[in-house]
Amino acid sequence: MTTVDQVRAAVSTRGPNAWTGLPGSVVALFGGWLANGLIALVFVLLIVLPLGLVLVQAFVPMMFDPLHPGLTFDPQSLARIFGEPRLMSAILNSLLLAGTVSIAATTLGAAYAFAVHRTNVPMRSLLLGVPWLVFLTPAYLKGLSWVLLMSNGGYLSQFGLLPAPLAAGFFGPAGLVFVHTFSLFPLPFFVIAAALAGLGSEFEDAARLSGARLGRVWLRINLPLLAPAFALCLIAVYAEVLSDFGLASTIARVSGFGLMTYSIYVAASAYPVDFALAGSQALVLLLLVVALVLADRLLRRQAAARLISGRSRPARIYDLGPYRWLMAAFCLGVALLSVVLPLGAIVARAFSRTLADGLTLSNLTSDSLLEALTVSHPSNQALLRSLVYAGTAAALAAVIATVLSLRLDADRRIMRPVVLGVSLGAVAIPGIVLAFGYILLWNRVPGFRGWPLPRYGDASLLVLGYIGAALPYCLVIILTAVGQLAPSLTDAARLHGAGWKRRTVQIILPLVALSVTTAFLFSFIRSVFELPMSQLLVPISGPAAPSEIIHMFAKEDEGMGSALSLVTMLAVGLVAGAIWLLARAAFGRRTDPAPVKARLLATVESPA
Amino acid sequence: MTAALSCRALSKQLGDRPVLRALDLDVASGEVVTLLGASGSGKTTLLRLVAGLLTPDRGRVSIGGVTVWGAGAAVPPERRRVAMVFQDYALWPHLTVEGNIDFGLKAARLAPQEIVARVRHALEVTQLGAFGLRYPSELSGGQQQRVAIARCLAARPRLMLFDEPLSNLDAALREDLRTEMMALVRAEGITSLYVTHDQAEAMAVSDRIAVMREGAIAQLDRPEVIYRAPADAFVAGFIGGFSLLPGLAHAGEFMALGGASAPLRTTATLVGDVSLVIRPEDVRPVTAPGVNTLTGRVLSRAYQGRCWRLVVAIADSKVRLDWPDGPDVSSELTFSLTPENCTLVAR
Amino acid sequence: MLLASKLTRRLFAATTMLGLAQAGAAQAFADDLVLYSAVDFGPTVVTAFTAKTGIKVNLVEPGGTGELLGKIAAEGSNPQFDLVWVDGSAILERMLGDKILQPIPDAIVAKGDFTDVGKKLVPASKAFLPTSVSTTAIAVNTKKVPADKLPKSFADLLTPDFIGLVGSKDPNLSGPSFQFVAGVFQVMGEDKGKDFFKKLLTNKALSGMKSGGPLNKAMLTGDAKAGFAQDSSAYKMIAKGEPLTIVYPSEGSVALPAGIGMSAKTKNAETAAKFMEFVLGKDGQAAMQDGDDTDYFLIPIINGVGAKKGRKTDINFVYLDGAAAGAKEAEWKKWYRDNLVP
Predict the structure, then answer these.
(1) A595 has a chain B CB within 8 A of its CB
(2) Are the beta carbons of A496 and B93 separated by less than 8 Å?
(3) Once rounded to an integer, what is the mean pLDDT over residues B119-137?
(4) DSSP string, B279-339
(5) What is the pTM of this model?
(6) What is the ipTM of this complex?
């Protein structure tokens, strides 16, 4: 049927719309196009345009030149990248590092998710908190903590726990892989935990009845069903590692292991900023991720399995018997290396005057912490500002991502992979590039310059910047959750007379509510510690927390910096924890499979 | 009030594969028609087209005399007043049983007393009265499917669609639930379109069966007629249990290929290249020698309580028979068929 | 209930955005002076200025110098500041060349009672108003190097005692470090200078530090015995009790002025003038030393103003040939990167 026919048809079957007097269906039809357009606009405005303005300078370097702006095509920066052996080897190093860490972190996250969600490991509630704690700790703090622990005069050597070859070998690619893996495993953990929740036991049961043993069941049935989730984790972690500069420059000081992000920071650390070079490098990073996304799409032909269906069967919990203490030991080991040691080092530093004098009683002081807790201290005002900005940005990002995901789920063939690919590509580009993009867009481009909201120099633009930085992650989390809903659930709702609004609000949203909350908390935590945005888009009304904290570290006041970071983490943790508990109470019970105890006892299916 | 369904020249292509080819179907008000076919035959696609969850490339769908798709009309599923029982039940896991049932009623903005009454009635007739406040994950498969049925009944649809509703249940449960389900449907007299690949189920529930093959209807008739006189070899082969024996027919006589047996007399009028349709329950032990007999070798036997099911090899074909006892495997077996039971179909 | 919470969240977000917008709009941009600063004494000077004159100043501190430069570079031909205050002359000259800054009016420059050093630091182009000066010298860990073994010149460092044990910042990432490297090349000649660095900085773990922080850490708790550090940073560490001392090489140390630049598009020229005059006066100068961070240990360039106690001020300054250094900047930075950065 042609569009005209559709419109005519629509006109004949619905009454007039109350607001406009036009036939209701016509409004609906145009409303649909308008909604799609608005969604695309928001995505473009928040991510595509700002990034694009920097990336395009790889080809048009004089676009924003202060003296002679021009649009001549001149890709010499891009050509330089492929001409210089140093830059080429940086690309290879970055790829190698990102690939290794993505496999390691995904494996670790998946193993941890399996341990905590599918076995009867003891101390489960405690272990569930570990990934959140890891995620709550900002990256620069993780880097600092390992330097505090592993350097020659550091805490581990002060306790005699550090053999010399380990110390020497740590500050190179090996140590970098280690620190990255233990700091990035929460993302795969969350994604795979969500996927496991939807993986009912019937697939396993069928396989076991065919004679397959447990190992084979997991290898041939469950893991392939989880393959889309795994692919997502691998790509997301890969992108994260590609964009890192802080950890690399702190940990991998030696060893000739140059990375791409170094070149970007070089380009961005002088006046004038070499936008062409920064743009070219960023473009390469983007393409490295997009290539991987395309490869994944081509290799994994089948669409993601829809695991949340209307046929609810709880998942099986494996009873490990005495081995569960071994599993607990594994999980505790992970907790030790990812949370206890690093945070311990930071706490120790916050309570010490100097690093060199170590953890002796005379060196202990509560001055830093007390100062950090004084409400009138400028950094606490910065903290309060950060909580408000980050909370607003996270809420808006979660809402936008949810609306976007629902719209995209309908169009799975083209739009979904494109948006996902661009989002993951955005993750791979260092935050400073996105921050530049925001300044260029809202301060230089005619048509955007004079807007009252958001306004350059204002907190409103900073919040927008936070949203842009957090949106890719929100999209990844929520798209995955929405994608797992069985279509028959919405089909049934349609047949029972529910229009899109009722369907969305009463059927889809409750089923993805926990994931939306997770996305919100993710964004909230990230935004509080979002550094490049906070620095480059610093509002005139006063800086946000990250700038203040980094300022302390730059002044080499590590004790104060550590104390401030801890206070910030505590505040964020409390707020996030409260919100999570509320959400769990509201949405958790019914969409989760039955509680652990009930499942272990009810091993036999009750008859009809 | 229940309505008639009319489909005209429905065509649908999925990807580069034509799934339905100019299909016509009429279902009278209150009638139960089953779409029977193998996977890929287009039966589920047809069902979804009627529901409105898919749109046809060409053709027209009318419910109760009103065109819902085609010739300028495009009524979305929300407004067709059609209910569907899904293969995976499609119960909303975050709503209770009552919540699942009254969801559609609330969407239709019915009066609260009416909603309560309908929910209560639906729970009663499906014997789920005690489970109103439970969640789907707390129920067994059979109970979940009953909730799905109750949900449809409460909605008082004009047309009910069944998408292989029993295939996820165990055998013992299947027959009981089927009987229950159809009793409810008949009691309310709701027009129904039923999809299944199980011919026994199809024959048990339907007023008429549409045997589907590759997007078209091979035969649409009452179950007895299809059983007694399948339209062609495909239909005959599909009605489970039937066996086909290729041969030549000429002037009331049938000669099996391979020439192993004497010609059989038949009342069928078909001539030329044909297949003989052998229904397992029609064969008899030979009482009088030479009267329409066939001989073959026993390949396997299975005790079924009432009789033995044998698979007998005749020339290059395998024939399934019901037999009063169980002869040894590899032994020779001769059986007879009355001429009236020698149905022929074109080969 | 779900509806309520989702809706509530949206409402909260919306009202907060509006609230922020109001807050932002309420701040009258037009009249208040906007100062972009990367110097530690920014806050103290601003507080003192407002206390004395009652004029409000919006102090914007993006973070380090790098972030500040990035912000200004991105703002490009549409600068959002009135005044900028950073370390480094080359940067400010470039900004003038890009017409982001305008020359400081002669009237204001005349108000400064500069010392000889100060007079030499006023640029011909009037790209900036110099406010203080520091330099990069050799910081030495006194616990690792006994007093009699202290180096007195760059040449003294080329001994087994120091080779491979001296830390240096990466000029690609640190402006003062580039100024230092350019200064060494100016004093020794380019080839001999390159030779010097290559012979001395054999440990790549120490030669490409990101900034002063890691350099100090390397000297105090790491493998380095000495380092090319900004002398004010070293003085700060000494004041804290760290075992460091400063050596000014006999060959000469390149002067690193801090300066104020004025935006070409400022609408607050009068207020800006008042601020700059304040900085040149006694109260401003006092405020500039009222603290214990790195930049407070500056060398004043106004007559009659003393430095902090113990802070050496009579230094053999080398004045960088800005044009020459600017011309070779990309080449030298690349050389350093290719040879001395891991």
Answers:
(1) no
(2) no
(3) 90
(4) -GGG-EE-SSTTSSEEEEEEEEEEE-SSSEEEEEEETTEEEEEEESS-PPTT-EEEEE--G
(5) 0.79
(6) 0.83
